[in-house]
Amino acid sequence: MGRGKRGLLAAAVTVVCAVTVLAVPGTAFASAPAGPADPSPTPSASATPAPAVTPAPVPDAELEKVRARLDGLYHDAAVATDAYNAAEEKTRKQSVELARLEKRTDTARKKLAELKDQAGAAARAQYRDSGMPPMARFLLSDNPERFADGAGTLLNGARATKKLIAETDRVERELKRDTDDAAARWKKLERDRKDKAAARKTVQARIKDAEKLESRLEKKEKERLAELERQAARKAQTAWLDTGVLKKKADTASATATGTSAGAKAVAFATAQLGKPYVWGAEGPDSFDCSGLTSQAWADAGTPIPRTSQEQWRQLSHVEVTEMRPGDLIIYFADATHVGMYVGDGKMIHAPRPGRTVTVAGAGTMPILGVVRPDA
To answer: Which among 17, 75, 290, 318 is annotated as catalytic?
Structure first.
């Protein structure tokens, strides 16, 4: 062959070899013989790093869905927390009442034992004199003085016996009533404990679901989610203020609109808890849930109020939003599952939810059900 043909053949062989090597997965590139057509060695495949794949950021629309899902989970947890707190309050009251009943039944049993001893002593006294009852001795007496003494003794004895029988009967009825009441309360206590356990399980499950959902987000996504939450809160507060509620409040202000000394004390207590963590079912001193904070604040102010937000809404006096004053409680959501304390200037203090701390927020950042006043 001529030199030109030999060069073309070498080049063709090189191309075929290269195609063959590339066709075999995992095979490194082989070095081609040095020659005019390929003066440099071919690098191996493992020497070329794979380009890093950057995950696409989650769109804000998807994060909004995550935020809505989290809100739903934490709302479900709040509902279960209120149920837990209500069951806890019931078990506490039932336990106190059972202790009181136990003390009463113990006293009644001792009293009944004493009455039975007295009845036995009276029966023994009747037959002490030769086994003859007082009535027989009275009828057989022929001494006027003894007759008179016997008549008086017999009358007093009859009265005492009647009184003893009546008292014994009363104590027995009282003992039975208290025993039946205690049995019924034990059943209620067991139901309340089961309700409490079921509510605890629901709370823990919802919080776990929320934490699992949040754990799937990257750090930057969590920061963006937090910013979306802040934006939603600002938007809700602005919309609430745009209704002119504070202006209406100023127009309808009365001499007591600035609050009372008790209200000021409740606000001071709530303010002192700023920064403490939310823990469901907690009433302080180191952590609180929403109604734990408000109930303890008013207890500190000398006005005990119901433990749960739902009972606070049901039992306390309602006032118009335009008439609220510092210390009043703002109840949120249609099912009254959240509560905050109004502190003035359109703001409130509350314990938001798991993972958050007691904080100051706009009073209109959540749907307001109404306002209640503990010291109406």
So the answer is: 290
Catalytic residue flag (residue 318)? no
Segment 97-148, tens digit of pLDDT: 878 877 777 777 777 677 677 667 766 665 565 555 555 555 555 566 555 5
Place of tokens 């059900």: 369
Q: What distance in Å separates the CA atoms of residue 289 and residue 282, rounded to the nearest whole number?
A: 5
Which three-class secondary structure state does DSSP give residue 340? strand
Calculate the alpha carbon distances from 238 to 10, 227, 248, 338, 350 in Å. Answer: 79, 16, 16, 20, 19
Count the Cβ atoms, other than its own, within 10 Å of residue 313. 21
Check 17, 75, 318, 338 and give the catalytic one: 338
User: Cis peptide leading into 55, omega within 30 of 0?
Assistant: no
Number of helices (H) and strands (E) in the chain: give both, helices first.
9, 6
Distance of CA 262 to the CA centre of its chain: 26
Residue type, 189: L
Taking only the tens place, the pLDDT of each residue in 14-41 is 433 333 333 333 333 333 344 444 444 4
Query: For this structure, is 350 an active site residue?
Result: yes
What are the Cα distances from residue 255, in Å, to 250, 323, 325?
11, 11, 11
Residue type, 315: Q
Contact between 300 and 327 (Cβ < 8 Å): no
Q: Cβ contacts of residue 344 below 8 Å, gap of 6+?
A: 259, 325, 326
Q: Residue 256 burial (CB < 10 Å; 0-12/13-18/19+)?
A: exposed
